[in-house]
Amino acid sequence: MRWDLTRRNNTREAISDMCFLGMQELLELAGDPRSGNGIDLFIRAIRYDPEDCEKEEMVHLDITRDAVPTENVPVYISVDIDSLIWKTHCLHLKASINIHMAPYMQAKPPINTHNRTYVNLLKPQTDIQRANNEYTIYDSFKVSSIPHIHFGHLQGGINVWIAFPRMTHK
After folding, report:
1. In Å, what is the CA distance from 82 to each residue of 66, 85, 127?
2. Which residues pair with 3 in a beta bridge?
3. In terms of domains, do 117 and 163 share one?
4. Residue 157: which domain range?
5. DSSP string across 50-73
6. Does a structural domain hold residue 92?
7. Most buried one in 61, 103, 107, 108, CB count within 10 A?
8. Spatial distance between the Cα atoms of 62 and 3, rounded to a whole number of angstroms
């Protein structure tokens, strides 16, 4: 059987040797992680024929092979996500951002309670450390204790806040 891997008028490639494997079969074929078989299977998607080591087969992962029927099994789903915290130095977006043109004033800061998220900040050197050419240390701060302001929002109601870590004092 030949499989045509044409995609958007790019070069056509026909493959005649392709095997369909489930995840469990893939893991069993990989065997010991130190053997090196996993590189060919998981990265290159190639399986070698055990009887003829020169013969290669392309691996097609079929996740439905390991599917477990759930018709008679009760499944209870509960999701509780009310925020996503993404700490970064540079914000790279593919969507537009609506920026507040004036300071956004609220009665409380956007993150006004401890949400169990920390940021490690490098303390400035003291005069003594600078004179002795000593390094300074990091200190862990709660995100809620770092001065921050609501900067804007993305489509879908995602808020963007900017923090000012150099204004943090302890």
Report:
1. 33, 10, 44
2. 15
3. yes
4. 97-167
5. SS-TT-EEEEEE-GGGG----TTS
6. no
7. 61
8. 15
Tell me the pLDDT tens digit for each residue of 127-167. 888 888 888 888 888 888 988 888 888 887 788 888 888 88
pLDDT at 105 over 70: yes
Residues with Cβ within 8 Å of 15's Cβ and at least 6 positions away in sequence, in order, are: 2, 3, 5, 58
The first and second tokens of residue 55, run together, are 């013969």
Average pLDDT over residues 72-96: 69
- Number of domains the chain is built from: 2
- H or E element that contains 130: helix 127-131
Please indicate, yes or no, if residue 90 is contained in any of the structural domains.
no
Assess if residue 144 is contained within a domain. yes
Same domain, 112 and 53: no
Beta bridge partners of 148: 163
Among 3-7, 32-36, 37-41, 106-110, the range scoring the smallest mean pLDDT is: 3-7
Q: Assess contact for 58 and 17: CB atoms under 8 A.
A: yes
- CA-to-CA separations, 1 to 16, 17, 43, in angstroms, rounded: 6, 8, 24
CA dihedral 24, 29, 32, 37 (to 10 degrees): -130
Tokens found for residue 50: 């055990």
